[in-house]
Amino acid sequence: MATVDDRLPPGEDPTLLHEEVHDPRRRDFINIAAVSFAGVGAVAIVLPLVNQMNPSADVLAQSTTEIDISKIEPGQAVKSSFRKQPLFVRNLTPAEIAEANKVPVNSLRDPQTLAERTKPGKENWLITLGVCTHLGCVPLGAGEGENKGPFGGYFCPCHGSAYDTAARIRQGPAPRNLEVPPYNFNSDTVVTVG
Amino acid sequence: MSFPWAKQYEPKQPLMRWLDEKLPVPRLVYNAVGAGYPVPRNLNYFWNFGVLAGAALGIQIITGIVLAMHYAANAGVAFGSVEGIMRDVNAGWFLRYAHANGASMFLLVVYIHIARGLYYGSYKAPREMVWLLGVTIFLLMMATAFMGYVLPWGQMSFWGAQVITGFFSAIPLVGETIRIWLLGGYAPDNAALNRFFSLHYLLPFVTAGVIILHIWALHIPGSNNPTGVDVKGEQDTVPFHPYYTAKDAVGLGVFMLIFALLIFFSPNLLGHPDNYIEANPLSTPAHIVPEWYFLPFYAILKSFTADFILPAKLWGVLAMFGSILLLFFLPWLDSSPVRSANYRPKYRAFLIVLLFDVLLLGYVGGAEANARNVVLGQIGSAYYFLHFLVILPLVAASERPRPLPNSITEAVLEKHAGTSPAKTALAN
């Protein structure tokens, strides 16, 4: 590091030697500025390294699914797949709808009515992800003859979460109702999920 | 570092002298695990397990590198490539069974190593850093073991990945985003499998690096011993080589015998048959359980069934991670100046209860979640935290320890000759 004792090079202005002492000094300022910019650069490089972990374009491209629901009888359900996750499409019977509407909403862990979880005029079509909101197992109850649990909806065999006929959490460790993905009825028989 | 009476490395051969001047690697080895490292003379066989853990890591790295030559980390072919290793690759079955059971052997010896540290107070001053690095190694091992179990892409692999990454979705607000970021998708798939393979290959080398720090930190105060009494002089120690290289070799022989029994006679004893079914994202196996070495922690996770301020799921995840992170604070939770449980009658009794508690949690973790087992798990989990957070500090404050020997040598002579200088002095 240069010191004030340094010999003045020939031709230099001697007043430069009597520069005022600033705090921070010019040298410190340049040092801090340079290192800060290197830091900003390093952070900028970290961004793509972190972002590469997010779902890639081909994974996102699978984010809509069309389902033909014309063959599903009342009381029946089918398993489909949406974003590589299981999707349950269930045609509720009038009894199941009545049972779901009978429950006082305020008594629920995740209060929602059946109407809020279905489309207007299509209250018999319950479309949810088949992913338990506890730790992600596939609940039973969509397949023929599977255990529907104590509330007649779905039952997760991993840690015993039980869902009712509106796929709302009623018992066990799961915190939320089975998720309703965004979907639209293209016609009375075709649904686009996503 | 080390004691003043440690033997010095003095190469006789001109070539070794030349090497010692340019790159003193033989000197480093001599001082670390050779005659240049003085070790207490009274170590028992529980002091084998550090070396055994190192050997197990070596076996995992060697078999793992070879397996990676035949394995394909793509969700479409991963399961088939593992079956190919089992059926077609020459000696592939042996390598895979050695790697799978090697993981169990590694965790087994590490659990005994940790239990040794708890019993003999090896986590206490001046060895706190050794303990902190050890808990770090344990965490790295757990992450590595989990990601390795995902690679065969069987049903347990897939659903294990789903459940474990599901832990992160318990974090309020950002949890689901973190889970999707970790998986690179909405459910475990090709992206997750590939990154797990990459990290599964990387982490053992990170572990090896932390092990070097662990040994370095150990060699500053030197090894603890069954009395927990500090080394007082040269008469208390023997050189690591040949005394403990020989003793460790005996233990290594027993380790290899048990390892061979597992590989050759019961290679799937510790595995789960569902993992020989290819991953199916639309069907969860009826009974998901992790590998045996995670069962106590899984039991703690399962023990939270009701919301209390926070959701039950978040409590479970916090408690499970907390049960391990708690160990980082152990050197400061136990304020007793006496290290070895041999001289701490109350602590010893409670430590034995803790051992049975962890075994109970292990049982509950693997059992069906019925009403009885949930209650057992809740009692077991509560006791685990009670031991570390309440019992341990209280015992340390109130216990009256038994009289300590004046030195390691005195303890050894008392044990083997039936007398001791102190006793003789008292008799006179």
UniProtKB/TrEMBL annotation, chain A:
<protein>
    <recommendedName>
        <fullName>Ubiquinol-cytochrome c reductase iron-sulfur subunit</fullName>
        <ecNumber>7.1.1.8</ecNumber>
    </recommendedName>
</protein>
<keyword id="KW-0001">2Fe-2S</keyword>
<keyword id="KW-1133">Transmembrane helix</keyword>
<dbReference type="InterPro" id="IPR019470">
    <property type="entry name" value="Ubiq_cytC_Rdtase_Fe-S_su_TAT"/>
</dbReference>
<keyword id="KW-1278">Translocase</keyword>
<keyword id="KW-0411">Iron-sulfur</keyword>
<dbReference type="InterPro" id="IPR017941">
    <property type="entry name" value="Rieske_2Fe-2S"/>
</dbReference>
<keyword id="KW-0472">Membrane</keyword>
<feature type="domain" description="Rieske">
    <location>
        <begin position="94"/>
        <end position="192"/>
    </location>
</feature>
<comment type="subunit">
    <text>The main subunits of complex b-c1 are: cytochrome b, cytochrome c1 and the Rieske protein.</text>
</comment>
<dbReference type="InterPro" id="IPR005805">
    <property type="entry name" value="Rieske_Fe-S_prot_C"/>
</dbReference>
<keyword id="KW-0249">Electron transport</keyword>
<keyword id="KW-0479">Metal-binding</keyword>
<keyword id="KW-0812">Transmembrane</keyword>
<dbReference type="Pfam" id="PF00355">
    <property type="entry name" value="Rieske"/>
</dbReference>
<feature type="transmembrane region" description="Helical">
    <location>
        <begin position="29"/>
        <end position="50"/>
    </location>
</feature>
<keyword id="KW-1003">Cell membrane</keyword>
<keyword id="KW-0408">Iron</keyword>
<keyword id="KW-1015">Disulfide bond</keyword>
<dbReference type="InterPro" id="IPR014349">
    <property type="entry name" value="Rieske_Fe-S_prot"/>
</dbReference>
<dbReference type="InterPro" id="IPR006317">
    <property type="entry name" value="Ubiquinol_cyt_c_Rdtase_Fe-S-su"/>
</dbReference>
<dbReference type="Pfam" id="PF10399">
    <property type="entry name" value="UCR_Fe-S_N"/>
</dbReference>
Automatic annotation (TrEMBL), chain B:
<dbReference type="InterPro" id="IPR048260">
    <property type="entry name" value="Cytochrome_b_C_euk/bac"/>
</dbReference>
<feature type="transmembrane region" description="Helical">
    <location>
        <begin position="196"/>
        <end position="217"/>
    </location>
</feature>
<feature type="transmembrane region" description="Helical">
    <location>
        <begin position="376"/>
        <end position="397"/>
    </location>
</feature>
<keyword id="KW-1133">Transmembrane helix</keyword>
<dbReference type="InterPro" id="IPR016174">
    <property type="entry name" value="Di-haem_cyt_TM"/>
</dbReference>
<keyword id="KW-0249">Electron transport</keyword>
<feature type="transmembrane region" description="Helical">
    <location>
        <begin position="345"/>
        <end position="364"/>
    </location>
</feature>
<comment type="function">
    <text>Component of the ubiquinol-cytochrome c reductase complex (complex III or cytochrome b-c1 complex), which is a respiratory chain that generates an electrochemical potential coupled to ATP synthesis.</text>
</comment>
<keyword id="KW-0472">Membrane</keyword>
<keyword id="KW-0408">Iron</keyword>
<feature type="transmembrane region" description="Helical">
    <location>
        <begin position="93"/>
        <end position="118"/>
    </location>
</feature>
<keyword id="KW-0349">Heme</keyword>
<keyword id="KW-0813">Transport</keyword>
<dbReference type="InterPro" id="IPR030689">
    <property type="entry name" value="Cytochrome_b"/>
</dbReference>
<feature type="domain" description="Cytochrome b/b6 C-terminal region profile">
    <location>
        <begin position="230"/>
        <end position="406"/>
    </location>
</feature>
<dbReference type="InterPro" id="IPR036150">
    <property type="entry name" value="Cyt_b/b6_C_sf"/>
</dbReference>
<dbReference type="InterPro" id="IPR048259">
    <property type="entry name" value="Cytochrome_b_N_euk/bac"/>
</dbReference>
<feature type="transmembrane region" description="Helical">
    <location>
        <begin position="45"/>
        <end position="73"/>
    </location>
</feature>
<dbReference type="InterPro" id="IPR005797">
    <property type="entry name" value="Cyt_b/b6_N"/>
</dbReference>
<keyword id="KW-0679">Respiratory chain</keyword>
<dbReference type="InterPro" id="IPR027387">
    <property type="entry name" value="Cytb/b6-like_sf"/>
</dbReference>
<feature type="transmembrane region" description="Helical">
    <location>
        <begin position="130"/>
        <end position="151"/>
    </location>
</feature>
